[in-house]
Specification:
It is a single chain. The protein is α/β, with parallel strands linked by helices. Helices cover 28% and strands 26% of the residues. It is built from twelve helices and 18 strands. Strands 3, 5, 6, 9, 10, 17 and 18 form a seven-stranded mixed beta sheet that branches. α5 packs across α6. The termini are close together.
């Protein structure tokens, strides 16, 4: 069968090859992809960025793809929650379900977890296999452009969960890329208005953030000039060291920063400032399996998020898709078989 693979960690590009088709095992689901999202993590792994690659331990060649919508082709023995013909989405984490983190509903911290498309073979193939446990059925009427956002939407939803917003607290999202815009949408779905913050070059994305539920949009410079210390929560999704520093400056006493991005450079933090004002910095690592219980419903209630998908290409056009992401031409690229 055809698959898009990274042949080795220094390959620098993804290629289309023929590989052996997988078989379905007990409590597994054999799937055919309908749409696959391409994200910055995929691009970073393909291009060989060491800071991102260090988070995974794949065997090569690796079939890529961890954001997807698929159709169930076959179910293994003991799998009862879905049937052939069902349309599904899923998380990318396969955790051990036995360690202390998993048992405390923090499976995102499981030291034994494997990530689909990053540690083990993913969805950019004619067929792929998933554990039934991580699969969630969706309504076939949900537009593909919305459904393909399920995995990054779960990332955003988990960050919102960690922020533990209380009534009256002021929230900002810094970084209006796909995850930042999805976070804005997740906040709006929870009835929370936010301020979205980015660079002057992000004008279109900032405007889209307002359309998706943010109450206002600001540049980082304007926010630091007029809103320093104004926010109770800042969710950082930019993945840049300067954005983290700005986020810490934007929260006031007792405020908290939720860091979702993965900066390439180390961040310098004035811990004396943290101590004086009891500011809190939290890391947000994807999602727990329980986060997925609300993903289909909340995503279906946020149809405007489908506008994040700006480009649709075939799987064989993977290099063009990567270029669109690298050059910031695309907000989100959707690949189809």
């Amino acid at each position: 069968m055809r698959a898009i693979v990274l042949e080795h960690p220094a390959a620098g590009k993804a290629v289309e090859v023929e590989i052996e088709a997988p078989t379905v095992g007990a409590r597994e689901v054999l799937c055919a992809p309908i749409a696959i999202g391409l994200c910055h993590t995929d691009v970073s792994v393909i291009r060989g960025y060491a800071a991102v690659q260090a988070g995974y331990a794949p065997s090569y060649p690796l079939v890529l793809g961890h954001e997807f919508v698929a159709e169930v082709v076959e179910v293994g023995a003991g799998a009862t929650s879905v049937s052939p013909g069902d349309r599904i989405v899923a998380g990318s984490h396969i955790s051990c379900r036995r360690c202390a983190h998993c048992l405390r509903a923090r499976s995102e911290l499981c030291r034994n977890k494997r990530l689909i498309g990053l540690d083990i073979d993913g969805a950019l193939a004619e067929r792929f296999v998933l554990p039934e446990l991580i699969v969630r059925r969706i309504d076939r009427t949900m537009p593909l452009e919305l459904a393909v956002l399920a995995e990054p939407f779960a990332v955003a939803l988990h960050a919102v969960e960690l922020a533990r917003h209380q009534p009256g607290e002021r929230v900002a999202v810094i970084g209006p890329g796909p995850v930042g815009l999805l976070t804005t949408g997740a906040l709006a779905a929870a009835g929370i208005r936010s301020t979205i913050i980015g660079l002057p070059a992000d004008e279109q994305q900032l405007a889209l953030g307002v359309e998706l539920g943010a109450s206002e949009a600001l540049t980082v410079e304007a926010a630091l000039a007029s809103r320093r210390g104004d926010f109770d929560i800042v969710i950082e999704t930019a993945g840049h060291h300067a954005a983290v520093s700005a986020a810490v400056s934007l929260i006031g006493p007792g405020g908290r920063v939720v860091c979702v991005g993965l900066p390439q450079q180390a961040v310098e933090i004035d811990t004396a400032d943290l101590a004086r004002e009891e500011k809190i910095i939290l890391g947000s690592r994807a999602y727990d399996l329980s986060t997925w219980d609300s993903v289909p419903e909340l995503l279906a209630a946020s149809p405007g998020l489908s506008r994040l998908v700006t480009h649709k290409l075939s799987m064989s056009e993977i290099e063009e898709a990567i270029r669109l992401v690298e050059d910031r031409v695309a907000t989100k690229v959707m690949l189809v078989p």
